Amino acid sequence: MLCYFYTFGCKVNTCETAGMEKLLREEGFETTNDPSKADIAVINSCTVTASGDSRVLGMVKRLKTNNPSMIIILTGCYAQAFPEKAAKIKEADIVIGTKDRKNLPGLLKEYINRREKLCCVSQYEKEDAFELLKCDSFSKNTRAFLKIQDGCNCFCTYCIIPYARGRCRSMALSDLRESVRSLVKEGHSEIVLCGINLAFYGMEWGGSLLEAVKCVSEEGAVRIRLGSLEPERITDELLEGLAKIPGFCPQFHLSLQSGSDTVLKRMNRRYTAAEYEDICRRVRKYFPDCAFTTDIMTGFPGETEKEFEETMAFAKKTGFAVIHVFRYSRRPGTAAAKMEGQVQESVKTERMKKLRELGEHMQEEHLRKQVGRTVPVLFEREKGDGFHIGHAPDGTVVKIPEKNTKKSLRNSLFYVTIEESDAVCCFGSIADSSSANQT
Ligand code: SF4
Question: Per the count of CB atoms within 10 A, which of 1, 37, 357, 396 is most buried?
């Protein structure tokens, strides 16, 4: 039987989908990228926003309509956060929460035998352990994502994730080492560590994210990149340690959400704008060539025009390389959903537009500042637009003309001198092929 996998949402979901693919492959199921050929579809859902839910439900219905005999498995955060709703979706034959993926092969076989709807969504307990879903390769990618942390204890007032993911828990260092060894053996040059709240890695045993990054480096990763980090967990000790790790990529994705202290307070975020600014200053002390990327939300309940302008001014001052802009989405069960002063959608749209324009301008500014620099670029693909495409350590997308180098540079590391930039990437030429680290 052929399985089709589709992932909504974050890098953690991407890792878990790769883990579920491995589980089914080990049971003799084959996978396909073409849903029209598939007998089974595994939809790994996200529920961060209401529009995300609609996209998940839309896909489930579409797949079943196109192929009524297809077995639809709905898993992920939507299923875990809203199990009753998920159980009522008639097109979903099997519903699995974020805690029970290991049961996927068994549930699938049971469904194939009995053809009766199965729901397996167990609630999180305080002492739950980290669920290890091994994935030894990201065949399509040069970079490999590795989920090493799950859950969150923060309860920001707008966020549904703690209800969909349980409390903080971390992958054991021994499992981390083994996972990195197999990813490096598979030829992945860059490992991207990710988690629901990555900066809380190891908190159960008094460990730290720095410990994890050191292990990844010791196991042979050429480059190491970090997923999203909660700003208040950035310490001098962490920064000093990261600065000593060869191949560490200084791209810091620090979720800001708002630049207004009064909004941050209502969001239950654990820093003020001034503290966030100080964190960026300290990061720049250790990584002068770093890049900051961030998430900012508009239209949080009660957000006034003045508070929004504070956010715009703060973002401008911080100089982000990339801003991911989101509109506040009312999530049932969260504290903010009950708050007064819900902002009109038209106002959210207008503020998103302004913030996106600012973000685009700042990205262009950041890319312009790269011109003249020579940076190590890990090439990842040829997209058929006449360029080899890769990433610099700070996350900048770098393109060099294919005509200069006929052979594929996929998974190769070269020094590139940046010669020009546009709104979304930089262009350059190989500085000195002898400095290449052929992998
Ligand atoms: S830190 Fe806040 S926004 Fe991030 S997952 Fe936890 S509750 Fe959600």
Answer: 396
Q: Please state which of the ranges 5-19, 130-144, 265-279 shows the lowest mean pLDDT.
A: 130-144
* Residue owning the nearest CA to atom 4 of ligand 1: 197
CB 430 within 8 Å of CB 423 = no
Beta bridge partners of 6: 43
Tell me, in angstroms, the distance from the centre of ligand 1 to residue 155's CA: 6
Residue from 182, 194, 193, 190 nearest 141 by CA: 190
Contact between 408 and 384 under an 8 Å Cβ cutoff? The reply is: no
* DSSP letter assigned to residue 385: S
List, for residues 360-417, the tens digit of each pLDDT value: 999 999 999 999 999 999 998 776 788 999 999 999 999 999 877 777 888 899 999 9
| Distance from C-alpha of 355 to C-alpha of 131, rounded to nearest angstrom | 38
CB 412 within 8 A of CB 394: no
How many percent of the chain have pLDDT more than 70? 96
Cα–Cα distance between 170 and 130 in angstroms, integer? 6
Q: What is the pLDDT of residues 291-321, one digit of tens each?
A: 999 999 999 999 999 999 999 999 999 999 9
Residue bearing the CA closest to ligand 1, atom 2: 156
How many angstroms is it from 192 CA to the middle of ligand 1? Answer: 19
Q: How many CB atoms lie within 10 A of CB 62?
A: 12
pLDDT digits (tens, 9 = 90+) for 206-236: 999 999 999 999 999 999 999 999 999 999 9
Compute the distance between CA of residue 148 and CA of residue 192 in angstroms, rounded to an integer.
10
Q: Return the ∠ at Cα 309 (arms to 307 and 315), rounded to 5°.
A: 105
Contact 378, 192 (CB under 8 A): no
Amino acid 438: pLDDT: 45
CA 13, CA 98: separation in Å to the nearest integer? 10
pLDDT digits 0-9 by tens, 392-402? 999 999 999 98
Distance 196 CA to ligand 1 centre (A): 8
* Dist. CA 426–CA 412, nearest whole Å: 18
State how far the Cα of 229 lies from the Cα of 24, in Å rounded to an integer. Answer: 32
